[in-house]
Amino acid sequence: MNKHAIRATNLRVGYRGTLLIDEGRLEFPAGHISVLLGANGSGKSTLLKALAGLHPLQGGQVWIGDENLAATPARRLAQRLAFLPQHPNAPETLTVTELVMLGRYPYRRPFLPPSREDRAAVEEALSQTDLHDLSERSLGTLSGGQRQRAWLAMVLAQQSDILMLDEPTSYLDLSHQYDLLNLIWQLNREQGKTLVLVLHDLNLAFEFADHLIYMKGGRICAQGSPAATANPELIEEIFGLHCEIRPHPQAFCPLLIPLAGQRNRRQVAMPAPPPVLCSDKCD
Q1: What is the pTM of this model?
Q2: Which of 88, 119, 230, 274 is deepest in the core (most CB within 10 A)?
Q3: Tens of pLDDT along 212-255?
Q4: Where does the ABC transporter domain lie (predicted)?
Q5: 280 belongs to a structural domain
Q6: 145 is a domain residue
Q7: What is the pLDDT of residues 80-111, one digit of tens each?
Q8: Which CATH number does the domain housing residue 139 bear?
């Protein structure tokens, strides 16, 4: 087994002649959770699409395991790698089950009904994402968080060894963000899947990732484990954020504490707000 699930050399990616990604060598370890980090416009989503074969390369090579991306047939690639974009689209009238079944397209034959394996994969994906109660609801009736979970279920039904997720915690409240990332962690630890994510919350990345890749201006500025790369100087260089890094009291990982503007806020004395009494509707 190749120790790198995805690797690229001399990678050049851009739009309409404008070069956005120019990186000599990039590797994602197999069987680990890797997270791309960087400010808006740093090239994270563009890089993810290029590695998934969804954006043309201006130069370089990408390998999925030992297979060259450019020479891999689309159906074969979809069996090895599943990609969830930042803003996926589907007809609003599709039910959750119908959407999740679309994840089985790499295995299905045209015009034939779903096989027993297809139905079992969809059932498992619905269970993993806690969507059984919503399985017959149309996408147009779902909240943003419910819809995000439905899209994740579709990706899980694809049963690929590599999952690439572009900002999968978008639209999710804090509780569901942790539910989703705990599911991702279980898929990695229990099934050995390789995960490559784009996240904006550094503390979530520190807690759940094995390997971090920091980007700025289309280049890789640093990479390594959370413990090795979480330092205030790097965070300020990448994000322009003054911060402290302390040990997490429970998760055994770094914890970022933003300091920007803190001193100025402390100098402004504000009266304490009156207590808010919760009505019976809060129960």
Answers
A1: 0.87
A2: 230
A3: 999 998 899 999 999 999 999 999 999 999 999 999 999 889 99
A4: 6-242
A5: no
A6: yes
A7: 999 999 889 999 999 999 999 999 999 998 88
A8: 3.40.50.300
How does pLDDT run across 167-212, given as a tens digit for each residue? 999 878 898 899 889 999 999 999 999 999 999 999 999 999 999 9
**Which residue range forms the structural domain that includes residue 29?**
4-258
Assigned domain for 270 exists? no
